[in-house]
Amino acid sequence: MTEKEKSFEVLMGELEALVAKLEGDELKLDDAINHNEEALKLISLCRLRLESASQKIEKLVRSVDGDWQEKTLD
Amino acid sequence: MWVKGEISNLTRHSSGHWYFSLKDNGAQLGAVMFKRQNESVRFIPAHGMEITVHGRISVYAPQGRYQLIIDQMLPAGQGDLHLAFENLKQKLQSEGLFDPALKKDLPKYPERIGIVTSPTGAAIRDIINVFARRYPLAELLLLPVRVQGEGSAKEIADAIDVFNERRDCQVLLIGRGGGSLEDLWAFNEEIVAYAIARSKIPVVSAVGHETDTTISDFVADRRAATPSAGAELIVPDHEELFARLTKMGQSLSRNLLHRIDRHEQRLSAISNSYALKRPGLLIEKYIQKLDQCQDRAIRVSREKLGISESRLESLRLQLNALNPLSILERGYAVLSDSSGKVLRSVDQTKPGNQVLVRISDGELAASINKVNKHKK
């Protein structure tokens, strides 16, 4: 799964896991630097998601054959 | 609890309190409604009147009997809904539908939110406003239903089922704005309660105003006082998320700098240590090298010495061949005079002299009989 395909929840989950690891003292300096870089990347990705979000609102309408269809809500 | 019955033996006492019996076909119960409560009753009770009352059971000690202390009284028709509410609540409770263990957690960051409410009216506008302000990340999917009137409960229940068939929403918000008990009634119906209970998707119930409580509130995974409050419950605030992400980034940088600092301190502590500053350590390196050289030298010397030893052996053999004793073994003898001096010439002795003859395995004492010198 590329980062673009990941949901905000998944991204936040990964970020929180990285932060938890980094707050622990177990990491070697090299790993800490790599994890830190990764975490910073995730943060800016999450921020971007929040910034660029525009709400999509749809409604379900039952068609003649009984199926539900999504239509933009006016 | 809500109880329905017929008034009999009504006494409206001069103190303002009302005393009567509440009875149905098979039983009767003493009842009292004190002045403070009965002042708000909007009709005049009379013998034989059907009423629905709300109150609590207590024991009237002087007579040792149970009685109902009433705090609300409605004419039977109006009270029916209260009674139905109470009955259904008890029924569903006993069936375990309100069990806290069944409550599902709401997703932290829902991607798609299903909404079951009326497409017109204040509720949906409020809900959309809250979602737009707090968390524009989530997609909203409204399934428009009627929220009051005949058949509305079935529409609501079916909508919950439709979302459960679709499975594209992580959480459902069901609700409507405020209204009378009758207006909100759809959310008090069994069919809605069971639809919420069997929903695999977490359901938030947000019906009416602050004070309204519906059956759907009890069954739902979370309840909210109003539709807006329901929406707020479902999504995080993206401003807060922003702030949290910023804070996270800052604390990460601090954390890493701190970590690097610690390593730097350790490194400088090591490089400043006595051991590294002491030149002896450098010498030790050479000492070690010297030791290695020495070992090698010894090994090489031993090899060389081995060669000398074999040479020595052959030399020793050569020398052995020249040893006078080995000459004696070949049959020669050495003569010496009485003073021990070796005789190299006949001139050194004369007949009658004693001499010592040394041969390989011993000495002989002998005397000279005749001297005969060779001419050169």
Structural features, described:
The complex is a heterodimer of chains A (74) and B (376). Chain A has 2 helices and 2 strands, in the order H-H-E-E. Helix content of chain A is 54%, strand content 15%. Chain A is of the alpha+beta class. With 376 residues, chain B is of the alpha/beta class. Helix content of chain B is 43%, strand content 23%. Chain B is built from 11 helices and 13 strands. The longest helix of chain B has 43 residues, at 280-322. The N and C termini of chain B lie far apart (167 Å). The interface between A and B is medium-sized, with 32 and 36 residues.
Secondary structure blueprint with pairings:
The complex is a heterodimer of chains A (74) and B (376).
Chain A: H1 8-23, H2 29-52, E1 57-62, E2 68-72
Antiparallel strand pairs in A: 1-2
Chain B: E1 2-12, E2 18-23, E3 28-33, H1 35-38, E4 50-60, E5 65-75, H2 76-94, E6 112-117, H3 122-134, E7 139-144, H4 152-166, E8 171-176, H5 190-198, E9 203-207, H6 215-219, E10 222-224, H7 227-234, H8 238-271, H9 274-277, H10 280-322, H11 324-329, E11 334-336, E12 354-359, E13 362-367
Parallel strand pairs in B: 3-5, 6-7, 6-8, 8-9, 9-10
Antiparallel strand pairs in B: 1-2, 1-4, 2-3, 4-5, 11-12, 12-13
Helix pairs in contact in B: 3-7, 4-5
